[in-house]
Amino acid sequence: MTGPDPVWLYRTVRLIRRFEERAIELVDAGEIVGGIHPYLGQEGIAAGVCAALAADDLVTGTHRGHGHVLAKGADPARMLAELCGRVTGLNRGRGGSMHAADFGVGVLGANAIVGAAGAILTGAVWERRRRGADVVGATFFGDGAVNEGMLLEAFNLAALWQVPVLFVCENNGYATTMPVAGAVAGTVAGRAAAFGMPSTAVDGQDPERVREASAAAVARMRAGGGPELIEAHTYRFDAHHTFEHRVRLDYRPPEEVAEGRSRDPVDIQGARLDPAVRAEVDASVEAVLDAAVDFALAGPHPDPATALDHLYASGLTARTGGG
Amino acid sequence: MPRLSYRRALTRALADEMTRDESVVVLGEDIRVAAANVTTGLLKKFGPERVRDTPLSEQAFTSFATGAALAGARPVVEFQIPSLLFLVFEQIVNHAHKFPLMTGGQCAVPVTYLVPGSGSRTGWAGQHSDHPYALFAHVGVTTVVPATPADAYGLLVSAIRCDDPVVVFAPAGALDLREDVAEPAPVPLGRGVVRRSGDDVTVVAVGHLVHDALAVAEELSGQASVEVFDPRTLYPFDFDGLVDSVRRTGRLVVVDDGNRSCGIAGEIIATVVERVRLAAPPRRVTRPDGAVLPFAPALDRAVQPGRDQLTAAIQLTLKDG
Ligand SMILES: Cc1ncc(C[n+]2csc(CCOP(=O)(O)OP(=O)(O)O)c2C)c(N)n1
Ligand SMILES: [Mg+2]
């Protein structure tokens, strides 16, 4: 997806928003076990960044990863089937919410180890380019990840070897319950600067601003520039994880939540559309998700006898654990 | 017949595979000048793009290799110290190993982790002398410990060609070996070999300890006929090959340079006794529980499995049944 297309941006944030809301319903209904980390409120970042990427560019996501996977172009129906653990899912029911991947659209996976994916994406982009493909990559991570040594090592490696990776920090103010002020010495931008990496701060609630900043960075990278960092300031509208719907943790003052929720990326982008167009997009997103829910719930559950399938790509079979 | 040293066998395996397959790249610290005397000549032959000297960022370059593999490369990552594997256990286990299953078979991660100089290097003490192959067997990452130059060549070649991650431990105790090798050839992963045939007891020896086991077998040849089985690959283990041997001898001793608790020796014995009724209780000679190799040479040696211990274990097994 390239070019400033306000409708595409709106459709994408709306799709992610409603996908997450439908997914939460399925969590409540017991169809998605293990819960999810909702991306609600942060949709503008995935949409804005992916709007600046081409189809064969590469992406890695996070534990809060549904938005990244959808914005890069994965099929919402197969994504939802994955969350429901069905063989029709993106990962054949082997990955679930935190590991959804779609290599066909350049998503090398959501990754549930905070800070771990940056180095993986750097290596993947490097190898693709070594093979002559003009690709760049974007790796998403939260404010919590900027204190992980392995991510900072990845900053160094990407900058040193000039691998065009867009490091996208989704700064939603908290790592689970830990506020940024309690965890981050210095700044996110300062970490980029330390490695000679340009960085841009952007309003993550505005998909258009994220797209602009990403497109500018991607253009510099395609022109031969090295990695860059975008710090998107955002707010998580809902729980860290749906377990919080049952166990209320006291760490965000209600006024702060209300204030955070008042800047809604879906509304900000929606206001840029003709109301009739917006209504049309809403209806089509709803139709896509209705079909996605039907598809997901109709998918067969995996056969327990296949639990070790895909463990080894080489064809090695593992000994089973039984008697 | 040409003499092949263990180190040059590794060098040759790397060079042959890099020549055969453009997707093979090598990463590691100080590899451009071959500080570990393994990557010798590779930079000149293949250039800095494929022979990448890395900063001291083990976690990043290990996962960089994972990413490169996801995009089609077959990276070989050299580690200067066996204990560095503890730093990158996360990257290997949580990512490289888990990706194929977690993605439902969308990808392969054909990375080789090469540790030239695993185990004690005499005088390098606590943080340079580990032999953590059992950890990788435990998590199910293919793990090989070649004992000879021919196997060093053949197993490294097979590791690089394997579509899964493989850890190659080249024991410090074997690095200076040389042998006559007509034409080095790939050695299949997961296949052990009987190094010496015998009738009374099977000794399983891992890595450099194969040579100690052969020496002990020779010493005992007047008293007992000792079979020496070299598994070569610890995971997946050639249990069928070993069981064939133990069915003939009826006795089992394992000598393993890993720690005792949850070590590979324990797994070998457990699996064999599940399948074979032995004539005598099996025995193992290992490092102690929780081993930290002390510096002073006498202490360093005291913590590693030795020939005397192996001799005693074999004799006890013969006496017991
Ligand atoms: C390395 C690591 N440590 C801890 C966790 C547990 N955990 C999962 S998400 C999370 C918070 C991450 O915060 P942040 O990076 O800001 O992302 P956010 O959840 O805010 O999107 C933690 C601590 C983990 N998954 N990985
Ligand atoms: Mg956060």
Explain how this protein is built.
The complex is a heterodimer of chains A (323) and B (321). Chain A is α/β, with parallel strands linked by helices. Chain A has eleven helices and seven strands. In chain A, the strands form two sheets. A five-stranded parallel β-sheet of chain A has the order 1-2-3-7-6, sandwiched between helices. In chain A, helix 6 (149-160) links the parallel strand 2 (137-142) and strand 3 (165-171). Chain A is globular, with a radius of gyration of 19 Å. Chain B has helices at residues 6-20, 42-46, 58-70, 89-97, 99-102, 133-139, 149-161, 209-219, 239-249, 264-275, 297-303, 307-320; strands at residues 3-5, 24-28, 51-53, 74-78, 112-118, 142-144, 166-171, 178-180, 193-196, 201-205, 226-230, 233-235, 252-255, 283-285. The longest helix of chain B has 15 residues, at 6-20. Chain B folds into two domains: 3-180, Rossmann fold, CATH 3.40.50.970; 193-319, 3-Layer(aba) Sandwich (Rossmann fold), CATH 3.40.50.920. The mean pLDDT of chain B is 97. In chain B, the strands form three sheets. In chain B, strands 3-2-4-5-7-6-12 form a seven-stranded mixed β-sheet, sandwiched between helices. In chain B, helix 8 (209-219) crosses helix 12. Chains A and B meet through helix 5 and helix 6 of A and helix 3, helix 4 and helix 5 of B. Bound molecules: thiamine diphosphate and magnesium ion. Residues 142-144, 172, 174-175 of chain A line the site of magnesium ion. Chain B: It comes from Micromonospora humi. Chain B: This is Pyruvate dehydrogenase E1 component beta subunit. Chain B: Residues 4-177 form the Transketolase-like pyrimidine-binding domain.
Strand order within the widest sheet of chain A? Answer: 1-2-3-7-6
CATH level-two architecture of chain A? 3-Layer(aba) Sandwich
Helix content of chain B: 25-40%
Q: Can you say what the CATH homologous superfamily of chain A is?
A: Thiamin diphosphate (ThDP)-binding fold, Pyr/PP domains
What CATH architecture label of the largest domain in chain B applies? 3-Layer(aba) Sandwich
Low-confidence stretches of chain B: none
Question: What form of chain B results from the Cα inertia axes?
Answer: globular
- Taken in chain order, the helices and strands of chain A follow as HHEHHHEHEEEHEHEHHH
Structural class of chain A: alpha/beta
